[in-house]
Amino acid sequence: MTATIKLGQLAEILGATLRGNEEKPITGLATLQEAGPAQLSFLANPQYRKYLADSQAGAVLLKAADAEGYGGDSLVVADPYLAYARISHLFDPKPKAPAGIHPSAVIAADAQVDPAASIGAFVVIESGARIAAGVTVGAQCFIGARSEIGEGGWLAPRVTLYHDVRIGKRVVIQSGAVLGGEGFGFANEKGVWQKIAQIGGVTIGDDVEIGVNTAIDRGALADTIIGNGVKLDNQIQIAHNVQVGDHTAMAACCGISGSTKIGKHCMLAGGVGLVGHIEICDNVFLTGMTMVTHSITEPGAYSSGTAMQPAAEWRKSAARIRQLDDMARRLRQLEKRVGDVTPDGNASSDG
Amino acid sequence: MTATIKLGQLAEILGATLRGNEEKPITGLATLQEAGPAQLSFLANPQYRKYLADSQAGAVLLKAADAEGYGGDSLVVADPYLAYARISHLFDPKPKAPAGIHPSAVIAADAQVDPAASIGAFVVIESGARIAAGVTVGAQCFIGARSEIGEGGWLAPRVTLYHDVRIGKRVVIQSGAVLGGEGFGFANEKGVWQKIAQIGGVTIGDDVEIGVNTAIDRGALADTIIGNGVKLDNQIQIAHNVQVGDHTAMAACCGISGSTKIGKHCMLAGGVGLVGHIEICDNVFLTGMTMVTHSITEPGAYSSGTAMQPAAEWRKSAARIRQLDDMARRLRQLEKRVGDVTPDGNASSDG
Amino acid sequence: MTATIKLGQLAEILGATLRGNEEKPITGLATLQEAGPAQLSFLANPQYRKYLADSQAGAVLLKAADAEGYGGDSLVVADPYLAYARISHLFDPKPKAPAGIHPSAVIAADAQVDPAASIGAFVVIESGARIAAGVTVGAQCFIGARSEIGEGGWLAPRVTLYHDVRIGKRVVIQSGAVLGGEGFGFANEKGVWQKIAQIGGVTIGDDVEIGVNTAIDRGALADTIIGNGVKLDNQIQIAHNVQVGDHTAMAACCGISGSTKIGKHCMLAGGVGLVGHIEICDNVFLTGMTMVTHSITEPGAYSSGTAMQPAAEWRKSAARIRQLDDMARRLRQLEKRVGDVTPDGNASSDG
Questions:
Q1: Could you tell me the residue ranges of all domains in chain A?
Q2: Span C162-302: which CATH code?
Q3: From A322's CA, which of A100, A157, C224, C294 has a CA 20 to 30 Å away?
Q4: Hey, what's the signal peptide range on this chain (chains A, B, C) (predicted)?
Q5: A107-114: long-range pairs with CB below 8 Å, 24+
Q6: B231 contacts A217? CB cut-off 8 A
Q7: Global pTM value
Q8: Residue among A165, A216, A291 with most chain B CBs within 10 A, to mutate
Q9: Is the separation of the CB atoms in C80 and C43 below 8 Å?
Q10: What ipTM was predicted for this assembly?
Q11: What is the pLDDT of residues C78-108, one digit of tens each?
């Protein structure tokens, strides 16, 4: 389970400057506070600098400036957090699935499964699907008709792809995610909802990550599209016809309504909701639980909601918000009246 | 995969007035902007009228008024969006499952499965369950003891019904949905939560649609009830004992707390939350992410939340909201004082 | 399906004072309004006292004070709701799974499954996993490498545990829940997200309940930790490295961001969101849909958000909130000016 790698080897892999014993065996990673003498730690956030001196870590990834005063073994790198990200995969206890098809899997005669792919127990792969080399399809996954998974993909157990879902290379999908569900399309006929068939598909770029229980619906006519390098956390809802630009990241519980288009390099914090049929430009940051009801055309950070208060105070604020239009009118009125009797008469504009 | 239907046949199916070549083969549907010469499009929303003239669509579904100035082939109908909804199913690439039971399925000896039902791979059907004619149970579904699925239902792969879940006719359930989970019922005994068995079931009406990863809990004592024609999008939470009236629609990520009763023909936009033990009357529309903390007795539209702002401005607004009660009192005080010194003394009421 | 228990036996089980016919057969539980002559009901909430006199219930669980004026059969207890919780399990129609391993299950040679455990159809149990006595693993569950489930646990069908998930005794997990998913950890390298391996695990205490489709991610380095007696409802997101204290309860749709620590005996209503890296002390109550952006150090109730309004009024309030900083400054200005001309010059402080 536990890998053992010498400190010198880690330095070589990272291109880091080694200070200390290159023969020291490293068996894992931990924080400065929790690391033991066989573990590597890292100092990325300056607020943890206070833990460096007393850390029991066998070695520490840090910047040159922080290495100066540190007496223990260290690997000096330009970006310790990025170095930690790289090295973390060497110590990942995640089991590696062997290539080959589990005998219990049910695979359509005309599906194409590369011999270097791994197909787990109770997997179903339907007609015309294609699984490329180096792909792992975890146990209990369902791969619908004509769906495709590009090289090096990793599907955790119990991922569902409907038909006509096209996935790029090196895509990671966590358990419970569903791609290609039928979007919420209904026409109203005298109060009764008539279903609209969802005849588009889903297109996922390369190097995408999709979290636990996240749903990405198929398009109504054309495809729902997720760009390259997009990272989607758990419990996210992506409705039909949405487009998400390259390298955009969304934290958990976001909901994106139908036909909305999100730019590149955006970041959505947890619980953000977007209405349908709007466009968000590149490089937008939305803070947690923001409700977005119109397009955003300027990069930058945006928010909605109110700050938390003790509940008793909150009830007063909430009641006052409902009186706010009245308050604003009364303030304007007062300004006018005070303007009549005070020397510097003109009040500020009402906006 | 691709159906081909002559324009004349489509006119006949829809009862539409055909203008143009009845022999023209139609192979699919697309928007006015994306449709090619073998595709049918539609003009429903007036804001897309600008795309009509330049559309490459082989034919267009439109109203008589819009057909006047249009030179291409067309099908004239009273409601183009509804016509598109109807015709969409003819071009749906969704695979049709053959009747019969997959040999890998595990079915209790006393379960009743109609010979005209289709049961997929790795399905489990428990004791006393009943599957009617024309039902499709997708691969990896679980149908608990005594649960029933009415005629013509369609369960996508990996849907879970616990025991005693009764489903009407023509119900569609997307992957990952769970019906009949044990609701959140606990009695607090000196700080420790004691579980209450959830002994009710779930009753789902006819023509209901349930989205990806949506959860509908069983009742604590009586059933949780979903009316006829209700449409639930993805990632929705319906707690125990909730009742949802006929033809109500909820967009994704809504959460309905226990014992709340929602009327008929309501519409809940995405991310709406309702507290428990309240009643919403018929014909209520709740805008996105609204928090509903008390019953609604008048039809109409309701909202909560704040409008999005650039984060720097939002921080100021959020801070001011916490001062709002103080501001309101100061405003009232000012009005009184200004009333003492100005001619039109009486300020407006505090509400 | 239906248990029949004599009223005298129920009195004995509960240690209740029986008033009435100890031979009366009880076949189920129902509310005061819905109970029939063979059903037991309960009066816990004083607001339902009005239904007592006309109830058709065969017997009622109630307090001594309420029993005085009641003519029907009754079981007098100190806490009727708690008594109902205890007795409810006797009437639970949930099927009991027999001990043993379903022949379709795929179990690694070195996994340890106690003979008194029940393993359902299409279950996968991977290398080194351990399933204790009295555990039920429902159909289609996946138990990853080295994961452990303590005595008396109950997993509904289709629950997924990744590798290295350690679960205490008597833990209940509903369908669709995923424990041990890879948390959302990425380092940004010039706009491109580099994945950080999630090498920690998940530790779940005793007597925990986890709802439908809830996700609990594994830790990035150390474990994500859920304390004893914690109750998590449906559709919840627990991010990597979160710690939840003993006996805390969360209603559906809550989202807890990474590394946040929640105390003991807290209650989170539905849809609450917490940002990452904060601490919530013991005995905190968060009302529905509250957004928590900083640590809480004092026990008590907290809220955010705005109260619902008719949409037309809401639009005005929402517009005014964006003007609030301007309004506050104008109010301050007015106070200063009015202070110059009125007798009691000093306005209340701005802060």
A1: 5-89, 162-302
A2: 2.160.10.10
A3: C294
A4: none
A5: A108/A145, A111/A143
A6: no
A7: 0.95
A8: A291
A9: yes
A10: 0.95
A11: 999 999 999 999 999 999 999 999 999 999 9
